Amino acid sequence: MTAYLLRRTAFLLVSLVLAGALLFLLLRLLPGDPANSLLSVGATPEQIAAARRQIGSDQPLLAQFTSWAGDMASLDLGESFVGKVPVGPEIAARLVVTVPLTLLSFLLAVLLAVPVGYVAARRADRWYGTLLGGLSQLGIAVPAFWIGMLLITVFALNLRLFPAGGFPRDDWADPADALTSLALPVATIALVMSASLIRYVRSATLDVLDSDYLRTFRALGSSFPRAMWRHGLRNAAVPVVSILGIELATTFLGAVVVESVFALPGLGSMLVKGIEEHDYPVIQGILVVSTFAVLMIGFAADLVQRLIDPRLRGGSS
Amino acid sequence: MRRLTLVSGCVLAGAVVAIAVVSFLWLPYPPEDTSGGRLAPPGLPHLLGTDKLGRDLFTQLMIGARIALGVGLGSVALGGLLGVAAGLVAGFATRWLDDTVAVVLDILIAFPTLLLAMLLVAVRDASLGSAILAIGLAMSAVVARLTRVLVKRVLAQDYITAARTSGTSWRRIVTEHVLPNIWPTLVVNLALQLGLAVLAEASLSYLGLGPPPPNASWGRMLQEAQATVLVAPVGAIAPGVLVVALVVGVNLIADGLRDVADPTRRRTR
Predict the structure, then answer these.
(1) CA atoms within 13 A of residue A257's CA, in its CB half-sphere
(2) Coil vs helix vs strand at A172
(3) B-side interface with A, Cβ within 8 Å?
């Protein structure tokens, strides 16, 4: 386990450096000098040179990268071009919305998908098993923002149960208030996420139900619930957990679009605004933070998977 | 039953393709015609009513089908070509190069399509080409990883060793052994990618980062109709229904093709 942990950590560090380099290159090598966004139309060559000096885009690429990597490592994400405010604290303030949104949606999606996926597999021969399987097929084809729009129309505009958008100015000072604002966005993301999760849970359960070990255990006189508990659950969990890591990362990033639907002041709406204004430090800061989050989630998912699946532990892989 | 999957998929996706083809030959109204007045209710002469600028909704929907299919097919062509090429190279490459490519692909895949697409739109500008390029590039990483795995699996077979020892060139091995063995799985995956690309285009357009006007895009139509959903619900529903119909259709085709390509799946379940 220790050897694996070391190897996996080394992989994580290499991934972080590589991902950082990729982001840096993508944002620098593509056409358009970031200094342009500081200038108005018809700037003189002197002004352009001054802007490039200020941003540092007149330096050689390698020098730019090392100074950039140093800043990132010391958590200095720079200052936004447009608002002239430090990006780091702004992102931290936005995470207060995005992180609870992600975790709540993810939790709800799992709570929804595991029983539904199980029933869809166990009762695949009944009409409701088929119906649940069909609904999850439909669910993966629906754009998340459209579900959000429909939920707003029904639950906010018609029934007036929840606000149509926005988030309390004082964040979580009044938790009930904050949770009410998050109710519809969470429902939106959870519905979309659970559709794809249901398909994984369903097929993992079908594999277990078809398995020889389950049949043998039943033939030895064990009841079905006991056989499922002793052998089925753990076997079905292995592929599902590996997918959960990816799904959690997708939830985090899927929040980007849904936040825009509900006008939530989270990371997603900050990113969209940054893109519209060509505000490179903002875009870059958000991407660095999201990449870090995605890679950490992958790391955690691999460790959990190894803990529940002893086959992965034995010997060298 | 299996035939039913394929046929219903073809009907759904085919309907959208037909709408797109017809849109090139005939449109109920010129795209920029606003003579119908703002937010006219469905009926005659405007079958589905008009949007908040007075444009005929049915006309906009037909043009939207063009954009959805254009971006979808364009990005699948780009992503498929790049992905299969990169996957083939990695699959045949030396251990060291192959490992490097695998790590880079794993990192690229850690970003979902949409985020990579947004990043590219940020450095270029929102346009039809940007959307295709962005979604296609993001997709190529997924296709490359799949191709690499498939190629490795074929190369491990005894008949490849036999072909090598009997002096067959690598080029002939690729064209006669590797490609014929991997394309059924690839086609199924590319069909699934087409559905994802259509969804990605709709999301990009909803965020205002997709093909700009005068291209009518379903995603942007939904965004524009959001504010007037209570007065003019058709505008907030019809484009969404078309997105879902196209994506479900394409996914059903993928499922149907998978069963045709892999006979062992037909017997189970």
Answers:
(1) 33
(2) coil
(3) 103-104, 106-108, 110-112, 114-115, 118-124, 195, 199, 202-203, 206-209, 219, 222-223, 226, 229-230, 233, 236, 240, 243-244, 247-248, 251-252, 268-269
Give residue-wise pLDDT tens across range A233-283: 878 887 788 788 778 877 776 788 899 899 999 988 888 888 888 787 888
From the list A93, A250, A276, A274, the residue with the least C-alpha distance to A167 is: A93
Lowest mean pLDDT among A120-129, A226-235, B109-118: B109-118
Query: Do A274 and B112 count as a contact with CB atoms less than 8 A apart?
Result: no
How large is the ipTM?
Answer: 0.87
Q: Quick one: which of A227, A232, A226, A224 has its CA closest to A207?
A: A232
Distance from the B122 Cα atom to the nearest Cα atom in chain A, whole angstroms: 5
Mean pLDDT of chain A: 82
Domain ranges of chain B: 4-18+57-268
- Is the CB of B110 less than 8 angstroms away from the CB of A32? no
Question: What pLDDT digit, counting tens, does each position of A62-107 carry?
Answer: 787 888 778 877 777 778 878 888 888 889 989 999 999 999 999 9
DSSP B40: P
| pLDDT band, residue B268 (cuts 50/70/90) | very low
Q: To the nearest whole angstrom, how far is the Cα of A160 from the nearest Cα of chain B?
A: 13
Q: Which of B104, B123, B269 sits opposite A18 (nearest CB)?
A: B104
Dihedral angle over CA of A115, A246, B189, A199, nearest 10? 0
> Which candidate, A275, A222, A299, A234, places its Cα nearest to that of A80?
A275
Q: From CA B137, how far away is CA B120, in angstroms rounded?
A: 9
Compute the distance between CA of residue B110 and CA of residue A300 in angstroms, rounded to an integer: 14
Q: State whether B111 and A291 contact (CB < 8 Å).
A: yes
Q: For residue A145, give the nearest of B195, B203, B248 by CB distance.
A: B203
Q: What percent of chain A has pLDDT over 70?
A: 91
CA distance A58 to chain B (A): 18
The single-letter DSSP state of residue B226 is G
Query: Alpha-carbon distance A236 to A59, whole Å?
Result: 54
Domain ranges in chain A are 2-73, 87-316
**Confidence at residue A316, expressed as pLDDT on a 0 to 100 scale:** 42
CATH number of A87-316: 1.10.3720.10
Report how far apart, in Å, the C-alpha atoms of B120 and of each of A278, B12, B136, B138, B250 are: 11, 31, 11, 10, 26
- Choosing among 3.40.1550.10, 3.40.50.2000, 1.10.3720.10, 1.20.140.10, the CATH entry for B4-18+57-268 is 1.10.3720.10
User: Per the confidence metrics, is the pTM higher than 0.95?
Assistant: no
For tokens 């078309």, name the residue: B242
B230–A157: do the CB atoms touch at under 8 Å? Answer: yes
